Amino acid sequence: MSSSTSLLRDDVVLSEGRPPLLDVAAGDAREWTTRHRDALRAVVAEHGAVLVRGLGLRDRAQTGAVFQRVADGLMAEKEAFAPREAYADGVHSSTAWPANQQMCMHHELSYTLEFPGLMLFACLTAPTGGGVTGTADAEAVLAALPAELTERFEREGWLLTRSYNDEIGATLEEAFGTDDRGAIEAYCRVHAIEYAWQDDGSLHTRQRRSAVVRHPVTGRRCWFNQVAFLNQWTLEEEVRDYLVDVYGEDGLPFNTRYGNGDPIGPDVVETINEVYTAHTRREPWQAGDLLLVDNIRTAHSREPFQGDREILVGLADPVRFSDVSATLEGNTR
């Protein structure tokens, strides 16, 4: 182990209920990141996440350069469930989501066949209240969930259903990068997604994925999915009632089911979210912060907030389901 790696690891502050924190005095964020890149990644490998404070990140260009230095490779987003603006150099805005609503714990793009192994978050503008990006250890969450629940999900996987239209959620172009039917159908076939065009021109899709995976480096089993976050029972009651009234349950922009197609009840969603809450680590954002998250080992969330909040996001180090010992990449009817 290099002296740089050892020194950085020794400087990480571990506190109950807070993410690992590394307070640095970086005169130049690019230079510091270049010098400590391997040590920083070693800290993420050890702890699953780390909040770096003191880099002084202040704009997209600087942040993009730091993202590129930390990541093995940045990636574009596909199959987005909500709009996100893409900037140059693999830098994205945070997902467009109402400021007064919680984004529950999830693993980014855990329903795709290729997903980011590393998430990077940079705070350019901290909110006046709330807006914390919480983290939770996926191995600990798996161990804390009821065994009969995790065993069923491990056996059957989970099913994501989506309905694309121009009124709610991500549009076809935002999700697939095109609105060409032929190109979308080809993408779905390659990525194990069932699809059906509706009479009104909307698209309905279904895809089944593993809910429990093994980390490609440690081999440890992790609860890795968006079962609760993308389920109808996580939506605000008035929002859910409106969407069901207008589009019907089969026309919701997204919903989740057991892998065999059975509906997931509100009690299951509540249980999952309660376990996540018990394992949440949180630290209020400060302008200039950088948060690195192992997307397989660590789930993340976003709390409601007040005031302006600008968080830049990098999706990095793509991983395929075949790399995490996942067995459920097919579909079910």
From TrEMBL:
<keyword id="KW-0560">Oxidoreductase</keyword>
<keyword id="KW-0408">Iron</keyword>
<dbReference type="InterPro" id="IPR042098">
    <property type="entry name" value="TauD-like_sf"/>
</dbReference>
<dbReference type="GO" id="GO:0016491">
    <property type="term" value="F:oxidoreductase activity"/>
</dbReference>
<dbReference type="GO" id="GO:0017000">
    <property type="term" value="P:antibiotic biosynthetic process"/>
</dbReference>
<keyword id="KW-0045">Antibiotic biosynthesis</keyword>
<dbReference type="InterPro" id="IPR003819">
    <property type="entry name" value="TauD/TfdA-like"/>
</dbReference>
<dbReference type="Pfam" id="PF02668">
    <property type="entry name" value="TauD"/>
</dbReference>
<feature type="domain" description="TauD/TfdA-like">
    <location>
        <begin position="30"/>
        <end position="313"/>
    </location>
</feature>
<protein>
    <submittedName>
        <fullName>Protein AmbD</fullName>
    </submittedName>
</protein>
<dbReference type="InterPro" id="IPR050411">
    <property type="entry name" value="AlphaKG_dependent_hydroxylases"/>
</dbReference>
